[in-house]
Amino acid sequence: MAAVTTDPYTELQLLELSHEWGHGAPSLPGQDDVIMFRAVKFAQHGVMAHRIKTVMHTGTHMNAPIHLVQRASDLSEIPVERFFGNGVVLNIPKKSYEVITAKDLESASPDVQQGDVVIIVSGWHHKYSDAIEYFGESPGLSKCAAQWLVKKDCRFVGVDMPQVDHPLATSLGPHRGGPLMKRLANDYTKATGLDPTKEHPEWNIAHKTLLSAGIPTVEQVGGDVDLLAGKRATFAATPWKFKHGDACPVRLVAMMDPSGKCRIDAGN
Fold first, then answer.
1. What secondary structure, in 3-state letters, does 16-81 show?
2. Is residue 41, in this structure, part of any structural domain at all?
3. Which domain holds residue 96?
4. In this structure, what DSSP letter does residue 113 have?
């Protein structure tokens, strides 16, 4: 299948920015795997229907503010204009255990405009798997990076990493409920020579900063996002209208209009 799909009528170019989801989708350490089976089968009934048990934070998914902020908006309460809009894919390559800072965001191109959707590509989506490296060694946003994005009033922020924060700032490391990856803190210190409690003293601080500002987040961006690195596009990611919902899988899509001919229908 072609990486870029061109609509024959509008000439819009569409790109997939989601990982495939299903049985075997990587799940965060400490969370249950996706469980799914065919409750109704073609051979027996002539139709097919699945039954699924899952944590909503698997695969490419959106987080609502209520995920980390008590009494904040759930998925059903996020204004719909947050799910669609123009924005940018920032190419900010990072290695194991590195941090994405406000300076990285400021230096990336093209420039982030007020109200943009911002997708941050560290290259970590290439490691998407059930692996210690993918979850435990991933980069993450610093507090100052999150504050920088809040000042830009982003519609939503997407990252190609398993979580918004550095893993040592989450319960994967020595924070509340953790460490869910018991060797992580020692491995981090051996690899970097740094003390995780000094480098990452606040729990989920980058993610909480974004969600406290009412900015939804999309984690585990993937698909053909490399084709958009350093470019502007229009994005759509619509979650379920889920009352009390903290998160759910989404299909993240980018749209471009090289011809400049496409216009939204007037609805008459």
1. ECECCCCCCCCCCCCCCCCEEEEEECHHHHCCCEEEEECCCCCCCEEECHHHCCCCCCCHHHCCHH
2. no
3. 4-26+56-256
4. P
* Tokens encoding 229: 């690195």
**In angstroms, rounded to a whole number, what is the distance separating the alpha carbons of residues 83 and 117?**
9
Single pTM value for the model: 0.96
Per-residue model confidence as pLDDT tens for the chain (268 residues): 568 999 888 889 999 999 999 999 999 999 999 999 999 999 999 999 999 999 999 999 999 999 999 999 999 999 999 999 999 999 999 999 999 999 999 999 999 999 999 999 999 999 999 999 999 999 999 999 999 999 999 999 999 999 999 999 999 999 999 999 999 999 999 999 999 999 999 999 999 999 999 999 999 999 999 999 999 999 999 999 999 999 999 999 999 998 888 877 788 8
CATH number where 205 lies: 3.50.30.50
User: Omega before 258 cis (within 30°)?
Assistant: no
d(CA 20, CA 24): 10
* Cis ω before 8 (30° cut-off from 0): no
Count of domains forming the chain: 1
DSSP-H helix ranges across 42-192: 42-45, 102-107, 132-136, 143-151, 184-192
What φ, ψ does residue 22 adopt, rounded to 5°?
160, -160
User: Is residue 86 in some structural domain?
Assistant: yes
